[in-house]
Amino acid sequence: xxxxxxxxxxxxVATLRAQDMGGMKMPKQENTKQxxxxxxxxxxxxxxxxxxxxxKCGMKLVKEKSKAASETKKExxxxxxxxxxxxxxxxQGMKMQNAKKEQAQPAxxxxxxxxxxxxxxxxxxxKCGMKLVKEKxxxxxxxxxKDDMKMGDMKMPMKDGDKxxxxMGGMKMxxxxxxxxxxxxxxxxxxxxxxxxxxTITSQARPHTVRYDLYxxxxxxxxxxxxxxxxxxxxxxxxxxxxxxxxxxxxxxVHNELKEETSLHWHGLFLPNKYDGVPFLTQMPxxxxxxxxxxxxxxxxxxxxYHSHSGLQEQIGMYGAFIMNKRKEWDIPTIPVVLSDWIxxxxxxVNRSLHNQTDWFGIRKNTIQSYSEAIKTGHLKTxxxxxxxxxxxxxxxxxxxxxxxxxxxxxxEYPKFKAGDKVRLRIANGGASSYFWLNYxxxxxxxxxxxGNDVEPVEVDxxxxxxxxxxxxxxxxxxxxxxxxxxxxxxxxxxxxxxxxRGQKVSAAKLPTLKYFAGMKMMNDMMDMHxxxxxMEGMEMANQTMDMNTVxxxxxxxxxxxDKTKGSQEDNGTGSSGMNDKSGxxxxxxxxxxxxxxxxxxSAMKGKMEDGxxxxxxxxxxxxxxxxxxxxxxxxxxTDIVTQTMQx
Length: 648
Hints:
With 648 residues, this protein is α+β, with helices and mostly antiparallel strands. Among the domains are: 34-53 and 60-69, no CATH class; 209-331, Immunoglobulin-like. Helices cover 22% and strands 24% of the residues. The chain is built from 14 helices and 32 strands. The strands form 9 sheets. The chain has a 6-stranded mixed beta sheet with strand order 22-21-24-29-26-27. Strands 23, 25, 28, 30, 31 and 32 form a 6-stranded mixed beta sheet that branches. β12 (209-221) and β13 form a beta hairpin. α4 (94-104) crosses α5 (138-147). The longest helix is centred in the N-terminal third of the chain and has 19 residues, at 2-20. It starts with a helix and ends in a 43-residue tail after the last helix. Mean pLDDT is 74; it is low at 25-32, 68-78, 144-176 and 562-648.
């Protein structure tokens, strides 16, 4: 009987216990052990079940907190009234949670000049060696808050499309400002309208072999101040322009009549490797007295150039244009234009001087910033700071060239054009080390191709062409006059000219001299006493988009107040000058688009500040002032420099 009573009591206790636990949901065994997940601190939308690297930025993935796993667990459970109330409390306290997340984020470090570099530890940038600075976690917290939007008890992850729309709401698409896109498209439409319909001509000749014989000989020239040795091909400098039509076969016989080896490289051409022209790599050098055949198919079109690939022969005359026409080409006058630089000093001596890192070339150009000039212009403090940090004097171009040439002359004339004619210039920069500014007295320059590739037409007031770069541009002759196409080296010390048309000469606007102390001061303000770059609040310096020379352009940042100061509006010399001390204030400066469309138009070159500089900065709500760089946005100045074009 006792056993029956004990069994009955045990059943009653078990029943009561089961009723008490009826509303309690037992966790599944599989959830007791949370799954470890990994994410990227820069891209929190990335999740992985295994450690590794972020597919977007390459950074090492870090382990996600267990809180994320508990949130996933809550989503799999059926919410009760208590859960809903807790969710409402969570929604009310979301800001506090986000703040905690922000504080809990691991510290990361980046480089101000290479923002794509990220590191979990302090150190130096692997690209430039600069000291890494700590990144702000705010951007990460904001992105995570957007991705983890919640409504009630339902988690709503944001889709990529929503992020794109959000970026468009902020007037940016992948770093590109929408207003710049619209401005570019308007420019393209206007350029096409002004260019108008252009007749084309179709080549009736069947593809065939085109032969050239090139005889390479020593010669003596007087480009500078004294007779110097040079190398002429077929008796001319630059070398003959080689012209082909797409589909032809090039047969080029090179006769080396020098007392040294030589070779020819075809810059930018698609051809068999054995004809690329690099001695001891793709071919053996062409010995003195020998003849060599380059034979390859022409399978492309566009403006290119060719040059010697032996020693320093290119610098003393061995460069020329290489033109490949389409089967159906524009029927307008076309001029190959080869730009170059010349110095009476032998190329080997130039090379030796550059390796010694002396200021001799700066002294020759009068672009050195001496103590006497620093005192005279009120920049002694800047000069002392520069010396203390062991920085060399500011300079733009390394070599003091004696003369600059357009098709082998400092002044080239083409008088056959009349009013209304459109002329296509196929421009190749064959200079040894010079970048050139190009501007035209007859109006806008329409860019139609770059490096042999057709692009959407873009109108510019001036254009910067780099070493070995090529551009196809179209200019119009407004009246029956001779208009100057001005070629100015980047340091603005000298120039060369191409004159188009006949009659009264119309000169292009000369570029004002640079303000070297302004550049020196900017560099000093950006670096600490150990030579490391400072972190500057609000300043964006994306890789290869910051134009350090911009602060030295008087037509951008304003002329010196004293007309007697070098770099003032009245100065025609080549010396240095600085900006007002307020120019050191670069807080809030946005240089993201510093190298795009950043110079002034022709009227600005005459001393007038363009209207774009007077507009209110939309980001910081600050007005531009040419004596202060606070709130400066270099992406909204003008549309006269082409550094990017849209390919067809």
